[in-house]
Amino acid sequence: MNKQNHPSLFDQNDLRSVPAVAGQDVVVREVRCKSLLNRCRIDDYSFNCYVGCGHGCKYCYARFMQRFHPHAEEWGRFVDVKVNAVEVLARQLTRLAPGEVFTCSACDGWQPVEEQYRLTRECCRLLLEGGFRLNILTKSRLVLRDLDILTGHDVCVGVTITTLDETRARVWEPAASSVSDRVEVLRRAKAAGLKTAVMFGPLLPGISDTAEVVGELFAMAAEVGVNRIWTDVLNPRPRVWASVQQVLRTQCPDLYERHRRVLFDRTFRDDYKRRLDERIRRAAGDAGLADRLC
Ligand code: SF4
Known about the structure:
Layout: E1 10-18, E2 27-33, E3 38-39, E4 45-46, E5 50-51, H1 65-68, E6 78-82, H2 85-93, E7 100-103, H3 113-117, H4 119-129, E8 133-138, H5 147-150, E9 155-161, H6 166-172, H7 179-191, E10 195-203, H8 211-224, E11 228-233, H9 240-251, H10 256-264, H11 266-286
Parallel strand pairs: 2-6, 4-7, 7-8, 8-9, 9-10, 10-11
Antiparallel strand pairs: 1-2, 3-4, 5-6
Helix pairs in contact: 2-4, 8-11, 9-10, 10-11
The structure holds iron/sulfur cluster (SF4).
């Protein structure tokens, strides 16, 4: 392992390799961080106990992290575990005012390595004890493990769903929990008395942005009774197109040109966003959820 791969964020003296998570082709490294809770544009704060994400979504915007933390492995094939995350957070909490925390902003806090390391769980516990509020967004049913510490606090449990089609979800989000498991997360969080949210996105051109699919997504949200709904259009963030076009070329070449124009043709994109927004508002209205759209 090359220590130069991990610039200033980490104490580079403590890098070491640990075996990959069973059954997954993911390289796991243990590192030490200097700070965990950061100011954030979405909420007051965010934190990430991991660099990298074993879910390996093909459209993942967090790929930009590789610019700052280069790895030989491609996105989805490496995870750096900040093994001192809990002690660093505890130290930070002695001098920070409570606020809302987006959990997590550059990885999935409940990705497969979390089952073993339990860092996101412990950080959530510390934050809640300190009076912070949590806005969770995940694609993993592992978050259900932590309902015991989340229940009774000001917590919103959100899941991301791009399509209800399990086969397509497996192609685009290869190691995330099944879509039905994510819906189950919403149901059980709601039953536990927590607020719930869903992010529909990124809605993929010709795949999950059609009137029919958008209608199905909102019908599911209405049936579960989620409190908040976000939507997202596919964005041309750094490194995203290289990954997305690989999937398009092999799985659905007929949609390649449409994706390219949505991402890079400004006039086409503006018109596309306007029409998708109309579709979303119509579907939300039909499902009786217009007031839940954020
Ligand atoms: S779960 Fe989120 S952070 Fe992880 S790969 Fe997918 S989009 Fe990226």
